[in-house]
Amino acid sequence: MTDLKTVHAAVLEAIRTKIDELTSIKSVTVGELRMLAADKFPACYVIPGRDEEGDYTVSEILHKLRTKIVVITRSPAADPVTGMDDLIGLCGDIHDKLLEDRTLGGKCDILYFVDRDFDYMLGQDYNLFWSIITVEPWVVMR
């Protein structure tokens, strides 16, 4: 039996690794958002959310490891439309990449997509666009 800490870390790392395969994303981090230099965008953060736990069978527990994938793009202030178009494309790329293997290389039993939220901030020097993609890797543990 593997402990939950190890399983959860492996799931987060598997998500990070899959996203890191996309050459369009310049920075992928597991954990908290931090300030980035302009050349590190588009950036992505894989952030653990809640673990909904329930009995799967008498001897097995189902963990629903809700995870937020935060995707951030940056564009010149004079071009707000391109930034959102780029973000929507990147989110589609991440979606497609994760769907290539919904077990994340055997790190989870199945990966579900929950939702995507988009938002932006227009600035004087540059614009930021971001999306939060919520996924839920399910893991059955003994």
For this structure, the CATH topology is Alpha-Beta Plaits
Considering the protein shown, what is the CATH homologous superfamily? Answer: Phage minor tail protein U
Strand content: 35-45%
Quaternary organisation of the protein chains: single chain
Q: Helicity range of the residues? A: 25-40%
**What's the Cα radius of gyration?**
16 Å
CATH class reads Alpha Beta
Instruction: Give the number of helices.
Output: 2
| Strand runs, count | 5
Low-confidence stretches: none
Biggest sheet features: 5 strands, mixed
Give the H and E element order.
HEEEHEE
The CA-CA distance between the termini, in Å, is 7 Å
Kindly state the mean pLDDT as a whole number? 93
Number of domains: 1
The appropriate CATH architecture is 2-Layer Sandwich
Notes on the protein architecture:
The protein has 142 residues and is α+β, with helices and mostly antiparallel strands. It has one domain (4-141): Phage minor tail protein U (Alpha-Beta Plaits), CATH 3.30.70.1700. The chain is 26% helix and 44% strand. The protein has two helices and five strands; from the N terminus they run αβββαββ. The protein has a five-stranded mixed β-sheet. The model has no long low-confidence stretch (mean pLDDT 93).
